[in-house]
């Protein structure tokens, strides 16, 4: 028994040891909680920021405590006279100086030399690394002065993956529709990427810029909110609200080819093929146990629900994902009073002559048929009932090709027939 406990303890110890923090991109682990890299060639503050971004999606060093400040000074070890740090001042007060990792102002900790910050000298901040005032901060001109600099990345876990950032591995893939993208991510032990902070957004934007749109792991659910597939809470977003609604999936603009600013997110059609980004925890082996959240962006199909009052939306099961073979659904639509029902198909794609949507002018399949439809990329169809009810049925057959049809979506509303 004791032997068993000892071996369990050893296994725990071993797996914990495997996940001790490491640095990616050739950065050096400092204080067991920061990854730093010194660039000795002097650059302007802006070029320095860009160099950090290009080197693993890093920022200039952000210093939040005297321990951090000392660690950076020891790390530089007098190799440069001064280094830019990731702080920008709007006024000559530490409260009005802001860290470039979006963590706020230098109100909590600052190490300015007396008389600084002084925006008349410049809005950027450097830390002296010479003996008499080592580690003390001063203001410098962002564009005119060139200095050495230290870039910083968060620690992560050991992993063989190429893009390893802050505990996660990221992979991008060539364009596919959302449902197939989900499958590929799963096969790679991951899930379509959530983006949970400005830093993660910055990292992804800097590292996956080859495509104009990169599908990410959120969808618009019909209760008017976005949700992440990996179950993360929707606390940060970077949606460009000027973007036209184009579907219930979300993509990040990563190139210059888009109308949306790079790094911003915008709605895209789930069925359209887009490059996509998968994410999995670094240092875990396949399969990563998927979080318990619904895996597909299922819009409530209303299949087989009891009578539905207008207005509303119905769709084939799993829409905008693919429906299964041999499905049968019925949808009983109704209105009150003097209203008829106007049914508008907004999307229609089934296997021709195999999978049918049939509409009846009444409550049952014995009511007069208004039409029966089948086919791929059908043009929108509008139908009106003569009474207060309309029955829609959907039946799919047995097709080898079942993976390429996503079915239908239709809205229905109250309608007054003016005679
Ligand atoms: C929308 O649905 C999601 C998932 O079911 C839920 O977590 C969220 O709280 C809902 N939002 C609103 C505004 O009801
Ligand atoms: C809907 O109801 C019919 C009849 O009861 C049943 O055969 C069918 O499987 C149901 N469809 C789904 C998707 O549950």
TrEMBL record:
This protein's source sits in the domain of life called Eukaryota
Secreted: is it a keyword of this entry?
no
Matching entries from InterPro entries are given as: C-type_lectin-like (IPR001304), C-type_lectin-like/link_sf (IPR016186), C-type_lectin_CS (IPR018378), CTDL_fold (IPR016187), CUB_dom (IPR000859), Snaclec (IPR050976), Sperma_CUB_dom_sf (IPR035914)
What CDD domains does the record tag this protein with?
CLECT, CUB
Query: Residue ranges of the C-type lectin domain?
Result: 31-145, 165-279
- Where does the secretion signal sit in this chain? 1-19
Alphabetical keyword list: Disulfide bond, Signal
Q: What region holds the CUB domain?
A: 303-415
On whether Transport is a keyword of this UniProt record, the answer is no
What is the recorded name of this protein? C-type LECtin
Instruction: State the organism named in the record.
Output: Caenorhabditis elegans
Q: Which gene encodes it?
A: clec-8
């Amino acid at each position: 028994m004791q032997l068993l406990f000892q071996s369990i303890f050893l296994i725990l110890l071993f797996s914990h040891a495997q996940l001790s923090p490491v640095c990616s991109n050739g950065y050096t682990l400092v204080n067991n909680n920061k990854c730093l890299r010194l660039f000795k060639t002097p650059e302007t503050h802006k070029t320095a920021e860009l160099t950090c971004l290009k080197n693993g999606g890093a920022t200039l060093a952000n210093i939040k405590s005297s321990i951090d400040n000392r660690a950076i000074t020891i790390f530089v070890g007098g190799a440069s006279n001064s280094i830019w740090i990731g702080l920008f001042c709007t006024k000559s007060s530490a409260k009005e100086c802001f860290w470039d990792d979006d963590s706020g102002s230098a109100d909590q900790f600052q190490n300015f030399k007396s008389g600084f910050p002084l925006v008349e000298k410049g809005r950027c901040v450097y830390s002296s690394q010479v003996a008499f005032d080592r580690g003390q901060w001063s203001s410098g001109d962002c564009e005119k002065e060139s200095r050495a600099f230290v870039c910083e990345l968060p620690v992560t876990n050991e992993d063989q993956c190429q893009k390893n950032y802050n505990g996660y591995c990221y992979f991008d893939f060539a364009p596919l529709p959302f449902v197939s993208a989900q499958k590929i991510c799963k096969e790679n032990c991951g899930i379509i990427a959530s983006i949970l902070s400005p830093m993660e957004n910055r990292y992804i934007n800097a590292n996956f810029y080859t495509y104009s749109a990169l599908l990410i792991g959120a969808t618009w659910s019909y209760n008017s909110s976005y949700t992440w597939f990996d179950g993360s809470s929707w606390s940060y977003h970077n949606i460009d609200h000027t973007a036209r609604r184009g579907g219930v999936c979300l993509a990040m603009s990563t190139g210059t080819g888009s109308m949306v600013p790079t790094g911003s997110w915008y709605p895209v059609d789930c069925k359209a093929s887009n490059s996509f980004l998968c994410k999995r925890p670094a240092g875990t082996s396949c399969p990563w146990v998927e979080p318990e959240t619904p895996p597909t962006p299922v819009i409530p199909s209303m299949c087989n629900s009891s009578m539905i009052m207008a207005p509303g939306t119905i769709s084939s099961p799993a829409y905008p994902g693919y429906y299964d073979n041999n499905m049968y659904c019925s949808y009983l639509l109704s209105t009150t009073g003097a209203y008829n029902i106007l049914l508008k198909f907004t999307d229609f794609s089934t296997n021709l002559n195999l999978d049918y949507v049939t509409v009846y002018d009444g409550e049952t399949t014995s009511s007069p048929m208004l039409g029966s439809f089948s086919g791929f990329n059908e043009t929108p169809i509008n139908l009106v009932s003569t009474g207060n009810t309309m029955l829609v049925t959907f039946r799919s057959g047995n097709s080898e090709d079942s993976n390429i049809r996503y079915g239908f979506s239709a809205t229905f509303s109250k309608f007054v027939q003016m005679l």
